[in-house]
Design brief:
281 residues; seven-stranded mixed β-sheet; 12 helices; binds S-adenosylmethionine
């Protein structure tokens, strides 16, 4: 089992390696944690992993999946991964920056051979949001994304209206996915230990209406949250006429003083459809 403090130190010493801060390297040293992440991730067919590190989570995925493709940016880790995972013939390690790959192409190719593709990772925290948005915007057919992120980032992704963490990112993400918390993870299960607690969250793809203009909807949501402390009315009034804003708010039973944080995803969708009816977008 790779995920233990003794095995991690043994591997790092053998290859004369140190965890690189610049690549967000914090290795999991608790086998129970990696096993739980893998078993929650719906990875029984093909799974894509981002940042295998020294292979702690990769090993668990290899035990339950038909195929594991892991993208690792750090070339120094490639010989280590090749060695520690050599008995797992279903693992393919690719030395590439995940942000540079054509994800849809990778997923489509896997789908020729496997019934489904999931994504599972302990993400490098310095690029959590770019990685997730790359996946969300890729149009790749991935039903489950299970990732370890900083706890405060997980809180924002899963926040509901009227909570202080709720923002445009929460609304956009929850339009596309059902977001759920798998578990909160203490900083002490990592080596080196990060300064913050972490959480594993899961994004389950929703069946969204393909004819809905999601790009415009996302722009509209961002506009509504432009200045958090301002009312919705004030955030919209530079782009939409005051009369139309007032009419739409009234049609939806909302006061002029309402703020974006108080509006649910479903109400955002209704507001957007109503504004579209007035041809403001
Ligand atoms: N999966 C391992 C574990 O759980 O112990 C390591 C996780 S560590 C938090 C993040 C990993 O992502 C590191 O191995 C790091 O080198 C790698 N990484 C960082 N940026 C990356 C990128 N742009 N593309 C692919 N891998 C990246």
């Amino acid at each position: 089992m790779i995920a233990s403090i003794s095995k991690t130190n043994e591997i790092l010493n053998k290859y004369n390696l140190r965890a690189k801060k610049g690549f967000g390297q914090n290795f999991i040293i608790e086998s129970g944690v990696v096993a739980k992440i893998a078993s929650s991730s719906f990875s029984d067919e093909a799974v894509i992993e981002i940042g295998p590190g020294i292979g702690a989570l990769t090993e668990q995925l290899a035990l339950i999946s038909k195929k594991v493709i892991s993208f690792e940016i750090d070339e120094n880790l490639i010989p280590v991964l090749d060695e520690v995972l050599k008995e797992y013939k279903n693992v393919e390690i690719v030395n590439k920056d995940f942000l540079e790959i054509n994800l849809k192409e990778v997923v489509d190719k896997l789908l020729l051979e496997y019934k489904k593709v999931s994504i599972c990772a302990n993400l490098p925290y310095y690029i959590t949001t770019p990685i997730l948005f790359k996946i969300f915007e890729s149009n790749a057919s991935v039903d489950y994304i299970t990732v370890m992120v900083q706890k405060e980032v997980a809180d924002r992704f899963k926040a509901k209206c009227n909570s202080s963490d709720y923002n445009a990112l929460s609304v956009i993400t929850q339009y596309l996915y059902d977001v759920s918390l798998v578990m909160v993870v203490s900083a002490s299960v990592f080596n080196p230990k990060p300064n913050v607690d972490s959480a594993v969250i899961q994004f389950k793809r929703k069946n969204v209406d393909e004819n809905f203009d999601r790009e415009k909807f996302f722009k509209f949501v961002k506009m509504c949250f432009k200045q958090r402390r301002k009312t919705l009315y004030n955030n919209l009034k530079d782009s939409i006429s005051k009369e139309i804003i007032n009419k739409v708010l009234l049609e939806n039973g909302l006061k002029e003083s309402v703020r974006a944080q108080e509006i649910s995803l479903n109400t955002f969708i209704k507001l957007f459809e109503n504004f579209k009816g007035y041809e403001v977008f």
